């Protein structure tokens, strides 16, 4: 025992321990400190003193003044509080306990007085808990009255009814938050005793506290209250002291201990649970049992003998039971700790919730005896307890953060109070009975305690979670094990828990399948049938029918031909044919010859086919003359079956061994080589005879032979009906996948038996749904080989009502089938059709990894037994031994299927799919290992992984990933530096470059003079002696916060160039005076030196425009993008990036470099070039001509569609050029690119503009193929003229207050490139070149030169020669490194999600001009804005790459250039396009206004056409139709902006479902909307919208509210229901009301900012703030002001440095008028988007948004209907309201009086209604509607 454990044990026994200097002091109840405990205490004295002294450092101090002030909840209390809401998985329940205390007699008044004294004594009995995470002690509370029921005269039945009613009311109480009390006492008086009913919420007290209360209650009742010592401290004091401990080193050590183990902690026990468990109402049931005192004493003695504590033995017994029923033997157990730390001598007298939890990792220990397992668990537990300061709640939260909330669920709990005492009858004066506890997110809580009566064991189990009977079996096993341990059994056993007896007998019964054993050959019955009915039809094929006689005579000819070729009995003969009668003839012929047949698909790759032929050592190959493979291996006898003449007589059946081989079927092999399964005559015939017997197959039956011959379903097709005189109908081989042809065959030939994989039968029913036709002949449908859809039976019966559906299963290794299930009915609770029961002479077992039989409901690996088993794998003894073996205990022969299954209580099996590398792809069994082996065999591949993406029960896609071998050096060619140098120099041959230094000096001087001139103009540096601080400069120039860094860099440049000097105090002094004409003269010199140079005048004008506007640029009033692209012109930009001398040099150096790389490309594939941030195309213009005649693919990209139009129009004639949107700061896969897919990446002036250039280069390195080149151009020094102009568009390296210029030196770039793996770095111009003074360089680096490139197309061709088509991955990707889990395994879950999306902004087809000039002009404007050659009238702007900022810019252009828009306000135009983003809709509105139309109502609810939004007089609702077909109307409600722009993807996804018209409700007139007082807005708008919907004639509704639209949706629904209108469904999509009521404008702006893709802290409050401080400031003010934050409160914050920093930032920002702040947001947003945006965008949207947010502080009345709530799995910060998302679901749940259905959906608040997540949302909405209908 360690010191921590000893302290905990002694304190639990009531011992008070403390340290005085170096001495240990204690106070103990009589008899507790036994000699044994004293000896232990002495031996650990030093460690105990150290621990106690450390605790004393954080000792509790009484805070009497703050006693009634709020204090935070503990972590466990917080978990309990959140878990009360049903919106949390398995929540909806308080942590609560109920029990009954039975007293001999109680005087009610004495009881009541005593309890009220305890309320006064213990603060937490007066606690009030608030929903915002705080608790406070009420100074006074009313006198508590205990309800009394006097049942002393009642009949026993009356008393029992009363007791049951009382328990029903009290044992699952959910006390309202924010109210007192959180306990309840009632007294029932009976003839023999008095019963005190006690209910307690664990938020205020744990169950150790309950023991204290009962003990003290007994003292008070007995009149000994004066013995209770006064409490010096409170629970509040303890909590605050404990929180201070988190600041010490012990806490940090504990945190490091747990975080280091976190990724290795196993999940919770994987006990079987019901699929619908979360939906059930929370209710707990207690299983109670007591191990008698004698047995308990014996068990403790046994434990002592093994050196174990009794508590640890009971824990290990619990673990053993859990391991037996857990899918995995490794799991984490949630241990409850009564964690009263010795921070004060009175801690153990306090009432409160001291509970903590700890996760105990349980590892597989199959080879250890029970006592060794217990010892190991004890060692781990004590180590964990030494680090308990970092609590289990914190560990669980971190698991959730890293691995998701599902991984953080730890619902299996162990709570031990063994050895703590304190609740015996002597202490509490009563007997405790009928208790039950409940805890949120807990399924099973095992609670153990001991007293003089023995060991009390309680299991509190959440109902509706576990399958019926499961807990009963586990409970019985636990009791049995404890009794056996007490009796001395199982201590040395490795498996102490056995299978329940009833399950053993059930398994024996269902596996008792003994039946007559076949004792003849597989084909014998067919020959006998031919003798009986030679003229009966046997095989019917297109154009040919064979009778039985002809069939066997032709088979006889095959047998003869084989014998003539030397074929002997037991040989293997391959059949390589297409479907046809020749296959059947060939199969029978091979068997007649005594050989075994080997079917091979004629389409199989030759290499794979030949490998099989060689492996099987075939004696001959049977083929069809019309389809004979021409490339069969030489030397093999080949027989064309259709050219053989039938024998004259019937062949005789030769004798043979039924246990000899009948056929070989090769299946996919995990090693990469196919494996040959050997099936005997007896094994196959056993299955066939059973099926024929079981389903009454006769001579009147005909089967449709769909299965390929190499699929073992064909074995039944041939030998099933034919052995009974029936017929085989073969489809046309050319129409094998055509369901219309199948229907023709069934109907035309009277097919009675169907035999296929489920997907084929599903295809048939789908075809018949579209082209109805009856199939009366079909009586039996056998489906196998894959999951059987639950809908298949109903689908089949629509077209074949007489057909029985039978699901079969098994394996090729077990002779076709081994089990069956008649699908008579489909249970709605099923997730799949049961696997069923074993067939005759066959059996099943479900075993764990130790080959122990799994209990009912527990998944395990499925093993087949019996007569159907194959003899093994041909030529592979090792694999045969692995898969076919005898059970080590009972000797039964088993086949390991690799499938997972579980037994149901009935004895039927439920199939659960694979747990290894085998998958089903379109019905084919595919070993991922074989695919991986084929991929790995490709030259240059180091590692390969194949994964299946998609649902395991539906269509799946095969994905392949390869990693290239390293260590090769195929890229020896030196970089083409000379070519680049020559071409770049040639471009400037007629240009004066020798005086470049003079030009640079002049430009730098002019820029520096302009900076200093501006400073002097604003009164700075007038006194050369007086220093000027940077803050004074910023204030004098009124510099916007985002440019603070820039001005500081100006000052640094002026110092560096001698214009200013700096002093030690951080001030600056004037060093050089300016002459009056200095600035004018400086720029004149620049202009003179630029004269005559192409673009020179535009270059100078660009700089002079900035000089003239410096004050407005610094204040943020001037958008710098408007100077770079004035009125959309690109002339200044081209002057900078194309025409400037150094730009021309660098661009042509890039061009020459790319040209040389392209010319040197010797691969068959074209060179793949990606240009990122191509913008104006200045670099592209130089590169593209140099690629003429080369094999190349060129992808031109930019992050904005603004530049794509000109590029497309300029180079559209080049078929090898593509264009798309791409943002280097984001995930490249999500934007349509794949790793290793580019040979050259060009970044001209891009990388320094990224958020993190190092990370950006890392992403480029991933995109580059081996040997690929990154070519970049960048400034490599800080230029004054750039900082004067383009600096206004830059983000600094660092924060916006003191950050540096985002430029790296040449050495800096070399280091960065080398750090990401770049080699052979090139830098031009050379240092000796005259242009080097410009400090603007072209650089190039080669990546991954240590490996050869891999071509996905070549890999596909390679695979096609080795694998069947269905095994070739549909998508291949070359990775630098395969992703690994924390345990070092390949992370297949990540790979399954790594499919690149389509490239954004790909070309669209140009449309011919319409006959509508208005639409043509609008379309031209939009095409130009989006960079498209044209845009269709109905093309959605968002789909073509637009966003709200682009819409805002175009709105201004339309208002200025389109006459029809002249009467529209900017806001009206913008809102129209936000709501209906198409040319057609915009033109319709403009025309309507010109013609004077104001409304276009629809009649009778018929849906309006898409693109015709409607208003109506008297209503401010704009109805935006999306289409959608017939059915209930589906209404989308606008969010805070009042528009439909967020809903474009969702609206169209819903419309595509065609289950009802989809309409959006948007604000028609923003001014009218904001004129409504915000307190009345929700109600009045809901009145308007409800009226409007009814006026339109709609009468059945699905209402959908997203974001703040949820309030409108619910209120409209309420009004419709009140009018008796049918609301079929109300669904809220991550709808989050406003939880903050404020008058702070900056708060509204911060919440609004994310709508513009702005940072709500940095862009609103300024740089340098810690966002956590901002969120904390809001929380602090909400608490101070009871959720209403008044104006000015943020600026007045105080309390700590973080809050003061927030207050200072608010004061600074508040000094700027709001209109200027909003204009700044527009500029910042424009900068991020890369497009100019008019300043009028933001105010218009903000006014509506702010008004909506103020209105959304709304407390709705209870809603009587049901609500479906789709909650995003990813939390999203909404400006300053970080982390409020988890409050939303409880908010709606509290408002809902009906059923509240919570559904988690992928994505965050913004991405949930965008692709790809919008499809999930749409599917849920459709399913909800379908269920309701």
TrEMBL record:
InterPro entries: AA_adenyl_dom (IPR010071), AB_hydrolase_fold (IPR029058), ACP-like_sf (IPR036736), AMP-bd_C_sf (IPR045851), AMP-binding_CS (IPR020845), AMP-dep_synth/lig_dom (IPR000873), CAT-like_dom_sf (IPR023213), Condensation_dom (IPR001242)
Domain Carrier per the UniProt entry, residue ranges: 1409-1490
Swiss-Prot/TrEMBL keywords: Ligase
Pathway: Siderophore biosynthesis
Pfam assignment, any one: AMP-binding
UniProt keyword annotation of Ligase present: yes
UniProt KW Ligase keyword: yes
Top-level taxon in the UniProt lineage: Bacteria
Protein name: Pyochelin synthetase F
Species of provenance: Alcanivorax xiamenensis
């Amino acid at each position: 025992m360690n010191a921590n454990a000893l302290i905990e044990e002694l304190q639990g026994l009531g011992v008070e321990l403390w340290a005085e200097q170096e001495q240990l002091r204690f106070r103990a109840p009589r008899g507790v400190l036994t000699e044994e405990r004293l000896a232990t205490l002495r031996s650990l004295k030093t460690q105990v003193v150290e621990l106690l002294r450390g605790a004393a450092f954080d000792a509790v101090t009484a805070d009497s003044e703050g006693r009634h002030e709020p204090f935070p909840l503990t972590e466990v209390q917080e978990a309990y509080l959140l878990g009360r809401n049903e919106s949390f998985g398995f929540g909806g329940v308080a942590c609560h306990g109920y029990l009954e205390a039975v007293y001999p007699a109680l005087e009610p008044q004495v009881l009541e007085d005593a309890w009220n004294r305890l309320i006064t004594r213990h603060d937490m009995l007066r606690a009030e808990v608030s929903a915002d995470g705080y608790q406070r002690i009420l100074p006074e509370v009313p006198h508590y009255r205990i309800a009394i029921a006097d049942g002393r005269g009642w009949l026993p039945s009356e008393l029992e009814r009363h007791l049951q009613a009382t328990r029903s009311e009290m044992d699952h109480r959910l006390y309202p938050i924010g109210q007192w009390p959180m306990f309840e006492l009632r007294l029932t008086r009976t003839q023999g005793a008095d019963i005190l009913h006690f209910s307690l919420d664990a938020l205020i007290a744990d169950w150790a506290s309950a023991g204290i209360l009962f003990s003290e209650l007994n003292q008070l009742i007995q009149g000994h209250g004066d013995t209770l010592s006064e409490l010096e401290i409170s629970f509040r004091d303890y909590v605050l002291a404990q929180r201070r401990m988190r600041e010490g080193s012990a806490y940090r050590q504990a945190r490091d201990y747990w975080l280091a183990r976190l990724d290795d902690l196993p999940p919770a026990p994987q006990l079987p649970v019901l699929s619908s468990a979360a939906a059930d109402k929370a209710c707990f049931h207690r299983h109670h049992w007591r191990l008698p005192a004698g047995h308990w004493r014996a068990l403790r003695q046994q434990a002592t003998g093994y050196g174990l504590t009794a508590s640890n033995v009971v824990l290990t017994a619990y673990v053993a039971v859990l391991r037996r029923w857990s899918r995995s033997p490794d799991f984490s157990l949630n241990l409850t700790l009564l964690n009263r730390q010795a921070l004060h001598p009175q801690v153990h007298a306090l009432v409160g919730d001291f509970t903590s939890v700890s996760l105990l990792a349980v590892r597989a220990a199959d080879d250890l005896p029970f006592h060794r397992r217990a010892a190991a668990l004890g060692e781990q537990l004590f180590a964990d307890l030494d680090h308990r300061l970092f609590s289990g709640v914190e560990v669980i939260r971190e698991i959730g953060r890293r691995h998701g909330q599902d991984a953080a669920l730890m619902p299996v709990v162990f709570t031990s109070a063994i050895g703590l005492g304190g609740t015996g009858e002597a202490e509490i004066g009563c007997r405790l009975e009928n208790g039950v506890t409940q805890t949120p997110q807990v399924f099973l809580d095992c609670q153990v305690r001991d007293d003089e009566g023995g060991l009390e064991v309680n299991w509190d189990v959440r109902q509706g979670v576990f399958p019926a009977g499961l807990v009963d079996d586990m409970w019985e096993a636990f009791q049995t094990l404890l009794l056996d341990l007490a009796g001395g059994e199982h201590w040395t056993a490795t498996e102490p828990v056995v299978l329940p007896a009833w399950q053993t007998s059930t398994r024996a019964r269902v596996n008792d399948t003994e039946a007559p054993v076949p004792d003849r050959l597989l084909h014998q019955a067919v020959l006998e049938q031919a003798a009986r009915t030679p003229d009966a039809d046997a095989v019917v094929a297109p154009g040919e029918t064979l009778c039985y006689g002809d069939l066997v005579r032709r088979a006889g000819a095959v047998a003869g031909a084989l014998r003539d070729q030397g074929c002997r009995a037991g040989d293997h003969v391959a059949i390589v044919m297409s479907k046809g009668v020749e296959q059947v003839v060939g199969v029978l012929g091979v068997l007649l010859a005594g050989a075994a047949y080997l079917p091979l698909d004629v389409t199989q790759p030759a290499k794979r086919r030949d490998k099989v032929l060689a492996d099987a050592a075939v004696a001959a190959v049977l083929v069809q003359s019309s389809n004979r493979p021409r490339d069969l291996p030489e030397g093999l006898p080949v027989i064309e079956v259709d050219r053989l003449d039938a024998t004259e007589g019937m062949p005789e059946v030769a004798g043979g061994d039924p246990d000899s081989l009948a056929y070989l079927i090769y299946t996919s092999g995990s090693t990469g080589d196919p494996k040959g399964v050997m099936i005997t005559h007896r094994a196959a015939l056993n299955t066939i005879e059973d099926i024929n017997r079981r389903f009454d197959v006769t001579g009147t039956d005909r089967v449709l032979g769909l299965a390929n011959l190499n699929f073992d379903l064909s074995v039944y097709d041939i030998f099933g009906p034919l052995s009974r005189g029936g017929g085989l109908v073969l489809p046309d081989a050319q129409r094998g996948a055509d369901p219309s042809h199948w229907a023709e065959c069934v109907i035309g030939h009277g097919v009675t038996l169907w035999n296929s994989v489920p997907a084929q039968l599903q295809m048939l029913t789908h075809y018949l749904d579209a082209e109805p036709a009856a199939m009366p002949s079909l009586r039996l449908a056998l489906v196998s080989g894959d999951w059987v859809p639950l809908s298949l039976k109903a689908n089949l019966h629509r077209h074949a009502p007489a057909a029985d559906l039978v699901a079969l299963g098994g394996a090729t290794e077990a002779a076709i089938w081994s089990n069956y299930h008649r699908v008579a009915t489909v249970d709605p609770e099923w997730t799949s059709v049961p696997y069923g029961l074993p067939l005759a002479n066959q059996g099943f077992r479900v075993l764990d990894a130790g080959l122990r039989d799994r209990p009912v409901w527990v998944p395990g690996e499925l093993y087949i037994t019996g007569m159907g088993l194959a003899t093994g794998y041909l030529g592979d003894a090792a694999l045969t031994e692995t898969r076919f073996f005898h059970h080590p205990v009972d000797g039964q022969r088993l086949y390991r299927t690799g499938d997972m299954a579980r037994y149901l209580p009935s004895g039927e099996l439920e199939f659960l799919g694979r747990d290894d590398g085998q998958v089903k792809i379109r019905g084919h069994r595919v070993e991922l290992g074989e695919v991986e082996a084929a991929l790995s065999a490709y030259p240059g591949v180091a590692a390969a992984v194949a994964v299946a993406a998609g649902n395991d029960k539906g269509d799946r896609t095969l994905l392949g990933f390869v990693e290239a071998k390293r260590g090769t050096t195929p890229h020896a060619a030196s970089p083409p530096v000379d070519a680049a140098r020559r071409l770049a120099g040639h471009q400037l041959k007629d240009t004066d470059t020798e005086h470049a230094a003079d030009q640079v000096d002049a430009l730098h001087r002019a820029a520096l003079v302009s900076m200093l001139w501006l400073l002097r103009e604003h009164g700075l540096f007038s006194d050369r002696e007086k220093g000027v601080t940077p803050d004074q400069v910023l204030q004098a120039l009124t510099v916007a916060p985002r440019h603070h860094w820039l001005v500081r860099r100006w000052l640094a440049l002026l110092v560096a160039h001698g214009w200013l000097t700096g002093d030690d105090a951080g001030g600056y002094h004037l060093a050089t005076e300016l002459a009056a004409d200095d600035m004018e003269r400086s720029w004149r010199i620049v202009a003179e030196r630029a004269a005559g140079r192409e673009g020179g005048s535009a270059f100078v004008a660009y700089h002079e425009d900035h000089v003239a506007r410096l004050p407005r640029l610094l204040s943020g009033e001037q958008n710098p993008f408007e100077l770079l692209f004035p009125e959309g012109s690109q002339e200044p930009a081209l002057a900078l990036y194309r025409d400037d001398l150094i730009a021309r040099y660098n661009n042509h150096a890039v061009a020459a470099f790319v040209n040389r790389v392209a010319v040197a490309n010797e691969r068959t594939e074209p060179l793949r070039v990606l240009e990122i941030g191509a913008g104006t195309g200045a670099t592209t213009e130089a590169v593209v001509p140099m690629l003429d005649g080369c094999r190349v693919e060129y992808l031109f990209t930019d992050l904005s569609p603004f530049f794509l139009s000109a590029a497309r129009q300029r180079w559209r004639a080049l078929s090898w050029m593509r264009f798309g949107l791409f943002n280097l700061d984001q995930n490249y896969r999500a934007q349509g690119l794949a790793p290793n897919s580019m040979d050259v990446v060009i970044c001209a002036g891009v990388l320094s503009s990224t958020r993190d250039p190092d990370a950006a280069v890392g992403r480029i390195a991933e995109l580059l193929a081996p040997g690929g080149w990154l070519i970049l151009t960048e400034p490599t020094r800080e230029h004054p003229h750039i900082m004067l102009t383009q600096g206004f568009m830059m983000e600094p390296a660092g924060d916006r207050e003191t950050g540096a210029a985002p430029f790296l030196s040449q050495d800096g770039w070399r280091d960065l490139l080398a750090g990401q793996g770049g080699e052979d770095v090139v830098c031009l111009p050379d240092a000796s070149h005259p242009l080097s003074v410009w400090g603007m360089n072209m650089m190039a680096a080669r990546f991954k030169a240590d490996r050869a490139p891999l071509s996905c197309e070549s890999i596909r061709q390679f695979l096609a020669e080795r694998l069947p088509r269905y095994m070739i991955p549909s998508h291949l990707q070359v990775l630098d490194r395969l992703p690994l889990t924390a345990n070092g395994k390949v992370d297949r879950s990540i790979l399954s999600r790594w499919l690149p999306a389509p490239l954004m902004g790909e070309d669209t087809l140009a449309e011919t001009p319409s006959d509508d000039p208005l639409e043509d002009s609008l379309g031209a404007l939009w095409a130009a804005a989006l960079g498209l050659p044209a845009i269709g009238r109905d093309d959605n702007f968002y789909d073509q790459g637009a966003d709200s900022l682009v819409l805002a810019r175009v709105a201004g252009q339309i208002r200025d250039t389109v006459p029809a828009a002249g009467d529209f306000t900017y806001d009206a135009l913008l809102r129209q396009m936000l709501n209906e983003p198409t040319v057609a809709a915009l033109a319709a509105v403009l025309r309507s206004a010109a013609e004077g139309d104001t409304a276009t109502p629809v009649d009778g609810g018929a849906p309006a056409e898409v693109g015709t939004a409607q208003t109506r007089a008297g209503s401010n609702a704009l109805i935006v139709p999306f289409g959608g077909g017939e059915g209930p109307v589906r209404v989308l409600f606008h969010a805070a902006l009042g528009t439909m722009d967020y809903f474009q993807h969702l609206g169209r996804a819903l419309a595509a479902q065609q289950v009802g018209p989809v309409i959006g409700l948007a604000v028609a007139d923003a001014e009218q909307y904001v004129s409504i007082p915000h307190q009345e807005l929700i109600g009045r708008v809901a009145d308007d919208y409800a009226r409007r919907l009814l006026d339109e004639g709609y009468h059945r509704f699905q209402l959908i509210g997203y974001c703040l639209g949820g309030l409108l949706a619910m209120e409209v629904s309420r009004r419709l229901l009140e009018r008796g209108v049918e609301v079929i469904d109300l669904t809220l999509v991550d709808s989050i009301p406003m939880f903050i009521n404020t008058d702070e404008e900056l708060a509204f702006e911060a919440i609004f900012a994310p709508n513009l893709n702005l940072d709500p802290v940095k862009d609103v409050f300024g740089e340098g703030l810690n966002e956590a401080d901002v969120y904390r400031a809001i929380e602090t003010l909400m608490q101070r002001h009871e959720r209403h934050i008044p104006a000015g409160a943020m600026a007045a914050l105080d309390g700590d440095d973080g809050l003061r920093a927030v207050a200072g930032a608010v004061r600074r920002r508040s000094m700027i008028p709001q209109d200027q702040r909003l204009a700044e947001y527009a500029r910042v947003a424009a900068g991020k988007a890369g497009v100019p945006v008019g300043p009028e965008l933001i105010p218009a949207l903000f006014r509506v948004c702010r008004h909506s947010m103020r209105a959304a502080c709304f407390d709705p009345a209870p809603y009587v209907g049901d609500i479906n709530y789709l909650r995003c799995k990813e939390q999203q910060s909404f400006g300053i309201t970080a982390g409020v998302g988890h409050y939303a679901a409880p908010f709606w749940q509290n408002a809902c009086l009906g059923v509240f259905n919570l559904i988690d959906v992928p994505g965050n608040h913004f991405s949930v209604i965008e692709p790809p997540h919008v499809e999930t949302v749409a599917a849920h909405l459709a399913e909800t509607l379908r269920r309701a209908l």
